[in-house]
Known about the structure:
The complex is a heterodimer.
Chain A: H1 4-13, H2 30-35, H3 46-52, H4 55-58, E1 93-97, E2 101-106, E3 119-126, H5 132-137, H6 142-151, E4 157-164, H7 179-189, H8 194-207, H9 220-255, E5 260-270, E6 278-287, H10 292-298, H11 300-303, H12 311-326, E7 332-342, E8 345-349, E9 354-358, E10 361-373, E11 382-393, E12 403-413, E13 418-430, E14 433-444, E15 447-448
Antiparallel strand pairs in A: 1-2, 2-3, 3-4, 4-5, 5-6, 6-7, 7-10, 8-9, 10-11, 11-12, 12-13, 13-14, 13-15
Helix pairs in contact in A: 1-9, 7-12, 8-9, 9-12
Chain B: E1 9-15, E2 20-26, E3 32-35, E4 38-40, E5 43-44, H1 50-53, E6 58-61, E7 68-70, E8 73-76, E9 84-91, E10 99-100, E11 111-112, E12 114-119, E13 127-128, E14 130-135
Parallel strand pairs in B: 1-14
Antiparallel strand pairs in B: 2-6, 2-9, 3-8, 4-5, 4-7, 7-14, 8-13, 9-12, 10-11
Amino acid sequence: MRILLPLLLASSLIAAVPAQAQQCTQADTVLTCWQRFVPPVPALTPAQQQTAATTATQQTVAAANTGITTLTSPADSAIKDFLTLFTASLESATLQDSGEALTFDWNPQLPILGTTGALKVQAVLGNAQLSAQATTSLAGNATAISDLTSSINYGDDIALSLSVNPTTERLGRSIGPNRDYFETWLLHIVPPQGADDQAFTAALVAANMGTNQQFQSLPAEQRQSTQTAVETAARAQAAVRNSIRRFSVAFATLLNNQSQFHGSAIRTMRRNIVGTNEWSADLTYEWGPRNLTSFRKKFAGTCGPDKIITAAIATNCAQTMETYAQEAATDRLAFTAEYHVANQRWIDLPQYSVAYSIPRARTMVYSLKYGRPLAPVVNKSGGRIDLDVDFEDVSSQADVKNRLVASLTYTYKVSDTVSIPVGLVYASHEKDLPTTDEKINAHFGVLFKMPNLPFGQSN
Amino acid sequence: MTVSDKDTLVLWRPVPAGSVLKASATGDETAFDVVIPWSRKGVDQIPFRHSDIVPGPQILVFQTNDQVALNPIVTLFRDVDQPLSLKIVIEDPDGNPVMVMAPEGPGAPKVAAACEWQISQAADSPLLLKILTSGV
């Protein structure tokens, strides 16, 4: 939604320029006359200017699968942040010390489904802590707790992860695999401009004027002809801009609806007093109903990459794509399967007269998430409904029942920073409490997102 | 006053023969595309593609009495945190900026032929520019 609304809004504004604005006067400069037809580039906000400074250092690695920041604390927003979990950037290998954990990331440049950089390897040396069971078992023995705590170091809680997020013509919303298709199409839509540009340049050179000079500053005999030359060129530019804008908005809408696949596996190794050794793996598939892949499949015979060979075909196909994209629903569906095993562990600390065991625990979680905007309106306010169904299969564990949790959430977005969610949550059991059945909770809240503050900026 | 980085129309003249135009762009490669259709003395040339410009620079050497027009198109497919940037400059063979007539006209001090455009919002896309040059 965050992606599509601005695009649709921008498209609707194209025809909204008042007719009286599209008329230059002798008091205009070349540039102000031009801008009556072709708007200037919007200024960046201070926060955007600040982040721009780091763009150059990151652009060469942005195409890599950088995964969730750390897989050991995965984000939980496949619907609301559809396809946005992979936008951070890293060098091909990095080492970070956050104070809480030491993280090593590596993007091996191995080809997967025809793309490189889709694989991410991560090792996290966590800030290991004495486990809750150990602390409980040592209750009252402050010396023992102190001694064991001081004996723990980074190497006592290690997580190794492998994640894959392939980007192909069919998967992922990167323009990369579809760039040739887009560029070839775009360049067929843009008409030849050489002759017109030569005439326009000649008119400005003949007038010997700069773009910030008024037409009325010219000798009387040059004013009208120069103004007409600028107006003619500006109208032509606006027409080109309009046609490529409609096409690119439609293309972007479908590109941002592309399906995405993500998978990861995590191995966690812990010292016995820190916790259990664990294995986990998850697969996620996210889907938008009308996307670039479905367009290419449906119109392969008329608008496929090998069919767009003339300006007429390109223009007709652009109209076809625009119609197809306008009907594209903004629904989102995501399915996730997670498998998790915590190994059995026996802890024996005879010097403190403590011994206990942790049983093996195996969990399978299936999750289905569906999201749909209810009122996509131009002022960014609007509603959204999200349905989330999770089934936790814990049948291998004694004393714990399988659990079904379903939630239905309506979120009203008041502004970019404030949202009001209202939700119903059904659970077949309280977690780990099999005696409480069929529980329904109602939730109401206010979400406030802190705006980016311009810390560290200088004037 | 110099050429504004918000201007979508730029006129750079006079450009001496042997000057070098350099076009380059940076940004999230997964989120944007840039192409530059261009012409020389009224004849349309093979456009510069994204792969030519990113990371670039794509180079174009001016001839005597040259007349080059560029129509860069920058498409942003989704909002990005870090703005993408398109930079076009004209330098002499030694890499120094070429000074051209100011937008205020022939009486104003000359300015460097250099501009950098940045966008980060998909709503501002596509960015369509027109850069006209006239050589000597």
